[in-house]
Specification:
Length: about 160
């Protein structure tokens, strides 16, 4: 066995070892892929009931319906693996963070009714605040961007040895 063989075996063994952070981010990706459609259905149902039966008049029901659209757009972006789907997810999650911050702050002063973003998502265990941040972190990681076709899988291949002329 030569030194080059043992070096390549060592490199292959190192690649097989899983990075705990990478494993955690993989789990986050699966959780987001499941949770966004479920929360979308939940918030859509809540918004429809509030709108049709005037349970909470004012802006609360409409904000829930807006939230449902954002959740479904993010979910679509998580399921489809293309450049536009990645951008759709980034825009959706950014909108969710923005709405959560603005509506959460306005709700501190009683300026909006109860909805998914009231008090930064307190009724939902602050998931509307935490989930889009985790989603953006997941979308930002290298492996995810490779899966969506945004970057090459191996950006720095080993150079070919120079052939003397």
């Amino acid at each position: 066995m030569t030194d080059s063989t043992s070096t390549s075996e060592t490199t292959a063994a190192a690649k097989k070892q899983r990075d705990p952070t990478e494993e955690f981010l993989n789990v986050i990706g699966y959780v987001l892929g499941i949770s966004y459609p479920l929360f979308g259905i939940s918030v859509l149902a809540r918004g429809i009931v509030q709108t049709w039966f005037h349970v909470r008049p004012g802006n609360a029901a409409w904000l829930d319906l807006v939230c449902a659209v954002i959740y479904f757009a993010a979910a679509l972006g998580f399921f489809l693996r293309s450049r536009w789907a990645w951008k759709l997810s980034v825009v959706s999650l950014s909108l969710e963070i923005g709405f959560c911050a603005v509506v959460g702050t306005l709700s501190l002063f009683g300026l909006v009714g109860k909805n998914v973003w009231t008090l930064y998502g307190i009724q939902y265990g602050f998931i509307p605040t935490i989930q889009p941040i985790l989603g953006l972190l997941w979308l930002r990681r290298r492996r995810t961007r490779v899966d969506y076709g945004l970057i090459d899988p191996d950006p720095d291949p080993e150079p070919e040895p120079a052939v003397p002329s």
